[in-house]
């Protein structure tokens, strides 16, 4: 990941006796409120699990009366916890800042803050078939090999899933075959998982040979990977016009709706939710995120 300067995005276009019973209920109520006041609830992208756990541990050391509750999921799934399941949280951190714009602004939050970037890679293990010859040019041919199995995350739930497809589509533009994406999307679908970090077990057990994943996750888990071409890996703001030439449709914010996602350089974002149970604690956590130590952890 590459930390970027804190930047607000205001998406305008773009939430024993009967006498004892009242006393006991009052005590239970006070106790419940007290416990709740000591919690900080954060929904976050799976790719943020490692750095956010480190941030949470540091935050709890500095604030021993606060219990940080982290819930990792695909970023779209995180948003739907709020919009469809009416789950309460203080902060949502997305692997794609556009998810906050599309799903949460303006009803659940007013702004989204960009805070880091990433890039797509193709990770593998020490027994992956084709590992000795795979490179940024020939990986499409290797993944299409019937002997080779690959995994990706669900594009309707996880930005890494739709970014995997965008990566395929961008690579297809460099190939003579126009059927590459369809062939690859129809292959190995039983290895699709809800979020990109769910693919790690499949790779570590050698169930599959390759996974589309973020460079930061590959690095955090000491994986081997090949770096993809800049015109494909969605990492460069300067190549935005190139990335914008491809798109993928995913399930929208309401049942039956479709959301078109265009290729875009990767920008992670977070928001403080309007109905945050503990906004003061949330702001302190976000201050830590942007502190020198927080920047060191995210990077």
Structure description:
The protein is α/β, with parallel strands linked by helices and 299 residues long. The chain has 2 domains: 2-117 and 267-298, D-Maltodextrin-Binding Protein, domain 2; 120-249, Periplasmic binding protein-like II (D-Maltodextrin-Binding Protein, domain 2, 3-Layer(aba) Sandwich), CATH 3.40.190.10. It has 12 helices and 13 strands. It has helices at residues 20-37, 49-62, 75-83, 97-103, 139-144, 159-172, 180-185, 199-204, 215-220, 240-243, 279-289, 292-298; strands at 2-9, 39-45, 67-73, 91-94, 112-117, 120-124, 150-153, 192-193, 210-214, 224-227, 247-251, 258-262, 268-272. It has a 6-stranded mixed beta sheet with strand order 1-5-13-4-2-3, with helices on both faces. A 5-stranded mixed beta sheet has the order 8-7-9-6-10. A two-stranded antiparallel ribbon has the order 11-12. Strand 11 (247-251) and strand 12 (258-262) form a beta hairpin.
